[in-house]
Amino acid sequence: SFCFFSPRSSAKLIAPLGCLLSRQKHTLPDLPYDYGALEPHINAEIMQLHHSKHHATYVNNLNVTEEKYKEALAKGDVTTQVSLQPALKFNGGGHINHTIFWTNLSPNGGGEPKGELMEAIKRDFGSFANFKEKLTAVSVGVQGSGWGWLGYNKEQGRLQIAACANQDPLQGTTGLIPLLGIDVWEHAYYLQYKNVRPDYLKAIWNVINWENVSSRYAACKK
């Protein structure tokens, strides 16, 4: 079957396995702002390394892994297909997560969301302050590396907070649709905040792009 992936969609999704034989390579998405745009909350050096080195590595490794997977599929080599699953999950998750993360941040961010998203936050968490405290606590509590997420539970029609280890993608591992992701890998903050993760989490709220989170919420409710 012929499957077409535009460069825009391939930057956001892992191609379904049936389409691996005819897909474009994944590419590193451009940041919608300069590396220094989120200062003083996240400095330019962190952003540059995080985007141009860490995210780029996930993209490169994902392309290499998919190439090997394609060969294994063509040979009917199930053993190799299974052995490649962890690399697909890690690098594919790293690419998906960071592609969301960059758009969740903005130099014009911070404050509080408006409209439907704010109503849903109040409904599901009691108040914005309560939500912020809960997502911060879950993100602080991630052991080692991982992510804190605000997701949408489509079945229950409500917002939910979750933590994922390493680069596990939220939707692929929990079924929740990702709205807001907070990267708590040390490479996301160590150069500026050392090992004090709570300071980084306090600062990141100043650059959260609520317009982006709101549009993600509106899209998954359709």
From TrEMBL:
Keyword match Zinc: no
Subunit structure: Homotetramer.
Gene Ontology molecular function: any one: superoxide dismutase activity
Enzyme class, spelled out: oxidoreductase
Localisation per UniProt entry: Mitochondrion matrix
Described purpose of this protein according to its UniProt entry: Destroys superoxide anion radicals which are normally produced within the cells and which are toxic to biological systems. Destroys radicals which are normally produced within the cells and which are toxic to biological systems.
EC annotation from Swiss-Prot or TrEMBL: 1.15.1.1
Main localization, broad class: mitochondrion
GO cellular component: mitochondrial matrix
Family statement: Belongs to the iron/manganese superoxide dismutase family.
Cofactor needs: Mn(2+)
Domain Manganese/iron superoxide dismutase C-terminal: 113-216
Annotated organism of origin: Glareola pratincola
Protein name: Superoxide dismutase
Gene3D superfamilies per record: Fe,Mn superoxide dismutase (SOD) domain, Iron/manganese superoxide dismutase, C-terminal domain
